[in-house]
Amino acid sequence: MTSATTAPPLAPASLKRSRVCLLAFFCAASLLYGGATFGWGPMQLILENNGTFARLCGDTNDSDVCVKQRSALLLVSTSTSLLFISAPLLGALVDRYGPRIGIVTNAALVWVGLAFLITAAFGPDVLLYPAFSCLMFGSILSNILFVHVGLMFDTPEATGKVISLLNTLFDAGALTYLVLYEASRASGDP
Which of 39, 122, 128, 156 could hold 174 in an S-S bridge, CB 3.0 to 4.6 Å? Predict the structure, then answer.
C-alpha cells in the first residue's frame, strides 16, 4: 500500500523504458552542449565574425578584429572557465537533493543560458557572460549526473559502459561550436 506522498514503484517494463529515455536524453545533451564550452575557439570566431564587442574597436574601417574585441571575448571564456571551481559544490548539491532535482536544474540552466545567448545576439554583448556561465554550470552538472545515470543500470558492466558512453559523447560535444562555425561558413554568413 502506498501513501499519498510516495509514488508506487514502477513496473519492470516501465522502469526499463524510463532508463532508456533518460539515457537517450543524456546522450543527446552530452553531444549537443555538454562539452561545448571546451570548444571555445570556433565560438570565438563566430562571435568575432558577428561583430560581438566590435564597438570596443572604435571607428576603424578595418575588417580585422581589434585587440580590444578579442580581449573581451577571451575574458568571457576565462571567466566562464573559472566556474569549474563550483564542481564540488554542485556535486554536493546533487548528492543532497538527488539527481532528479539535478536534472531539472541542469535543463533550466541550459535553457536560461540559450535565452541569454539569443538575447545577446540582438542586445548588449555583456549578456554573453551570464549566457556562457549558465551553459558552463549546465555542462559541469551534466558531467556530475553521468555517474547517477550510469548507476541506474543493474550490473557493474552496464554501469561502466553507460558512464563511458556519456563521457565519450561529452568529449565529442567539444566539437559543437566547430560544427556551428563550419555551418555558418557554408551558409555564406560572415
Answer: 39
Would residue 106 be called left, alpha or beta, if left means φ above 0 and alpha means ψ between -120 and 50 degrees?
Answer: alpha
DSSP 50: T
Can you give the pTM of this predicted structure?
0.80
Give the pLDDT band (50/70/90) at residue 8. Answer: low
Give the three-state DSSP class for 168. Answer: helix
End-to-end CA distance of the chain: give it in Å, rounded: 64
In this structure, is the dihedral angle defined by the CA atoms of residues 19, 21, 23 and 25, taken in order, positive or negative? negative
Cell reading at 154: 543493474
d(Cα 160, Cα 150) in Å, to the nearest integer?
7
Confidence of residue 9 (pLDDT cuts 50, 70, 90): low
When pLDDT is cut at 50, 70 and 90, the band that residue 108 belongs to is very high
Contact 174, 36 (CB under 8 A): yes
What percent of the chain stands above pLDDT 90? 25
Residue 130 to residue 87: CA distance in whole angstroms: 17
